[in-house]
Amino acid sequence: MHYSLLQFVSLLGSVCLFLYGMKVMSEGLQKVAGDRLRNILGAMTKNRVTGVLTGIAITALIQSSSASTVMVVSFVNAGLMSLAQSMAVIFGANFGTIVTSWIISAFSFEFHISDYTIVLLAIAVPMLFMKKSNYKSIGEFLIGFSFLFMGLDMISTFVPDLQKNPDMLKFITHYASLGYWSVLIFWLFGVILTMVAQASAATFAIVLIMCSQGWISFELGCAIILGSKIGTTITPILASLSGNLAAKRTAAGTLLYNLFGSIIVLCIFYPFVQLTGDITSWCIGTNPCDITAQQEAAMRGTTLLNEHGLLTKAAQTSLAFGLAMFPTVFNVMNLAIMIWLPKVYVKIVTRLLPEKKGKSEQDDFSLKFISGALMGTSELQITQAQKEIAVYGERVERMLRMARTMLHSDPESSDYQKLYNRMEKYEEISDRMEIEIGQFLNKVAEGRLSPEGKMRIAGMLRIISEIESIADSCFNVAKTMERKHKAKVEFTPMMLEKIDAMFDLVQGAMTNMQSLLKEMETPEDSKIITAYNREREINNLRNSLRDANIDNINNHKYDYQQGIFYMDLVGEAEKLGDYMLNVVEGVKHQFKSAAA
Q1: SS3 label, residue 311
Q2: Which of 254, 350, 417, 519 has the most CB atoms at less than 10 Å from its CB?
């Protein structure tokens, strides 16, 4: 009997169903957790033990060390977590992966949960149509959980029967009988397989099937699992490529942590695997190291092989338990050593990725805290967007200061022209920042979000639009000054004094707006009231100056053309106040109501 193309495609489909189930399950859990995930990571302290426990909890909750590590990279990228703090969380995240291994192992042979997945689907699907969002998310989690084990069961069904396909067995055993070289080959296979699947849980499931079907020995299965520890770091590495230097260092730290641990275990591989086998034998009475493809003939007729030469239920249970025990022992050993060395990791990655000196980012376009590559956990990305919006506001505030400086600069000086050129560049950067942040928020909105998260996205989209209007208005001040200079118009000391008074109020409104942007999730009522009062003061002063302007022109205190440029600047200052109030209202209506 030959293994057909249809069976191979069915096997690929089974793997895809497994991966899709894991994705849906993870997203459902993230949706249920919502802000709690952000609060857990956002409240991180410098305590390495707390950091490790946080990493374990997050990974156990969302069932993906890659996703939790990407969160950590994102938080470091956003400045919410230091590099040293991130190392502790990463240590914990890697340890948390054993939860998934034990779940898959426990439900593989002793209890076939796939027999009950239809029942789970009958419970889960109606939950999708309930009004309460939490019930919908729990329903999606159960659907993902069902798909995961349906896929695992189908993988077992469609993997080739090596008894009936001896050519395939011959191919595998050719690489499985090279001694320590076989360990390295299958370790590398684990690295590549996990890089492709981007999920160490998928690799574990495949190894479990390969060992239970007799493709490879328990030792080589452990080698593949060890390689998956390196392969799983590809996701945070890819995510960090478009992040800042701190994000790249965090991803490098993730790779080094797993690489150092793997190298240590490779150096003592056979004793380490034997230790795992002894622990398994002590726990359940059977040592998986005794179950190898090379020993089949000698073991035939024993309790580990049935009359057909296939592994008995006890042997399969021993393999599943041992394969779950291997990463457990590895992570315990690795964590016990590495938890004392986060500062060492920081020094190593800092040397590997040094900071470039003499490079100023103030006048360059670059998003500091968010990146399209750092996607994956929508609720957590909201914090990154909030930090980026605060930076956006700071950049626009610099434009306001530059505009005020232009008011008192000599139009014939080189400094004046430099200021104008810089304002023009800042306005272009502002337009690009609005687009980039907006596109990022739209991507986040496509992910799994709670109703509060959706409200925050709507609020932030409104806020960035108003901030961009502030930038346009600041540049309009510069363009008005340039037109005034070309028209050879000069302001009187009284006019400059009144313009300064107007812009003093605007600067106060800007300072208040910035403080609200930095505390978007918990806006203070007093600052919101201050924003309304500032805007009212700006309007009153504008009305007063507008009325006085007509009288001054009629009384020949200055000519009509001077009055036009004068009121253009006063009117632009009043618009700035309006835009700033709109930003505050965006914070008030979306974030204040969400927090209520």
Answers
A1: strand
A2: 254
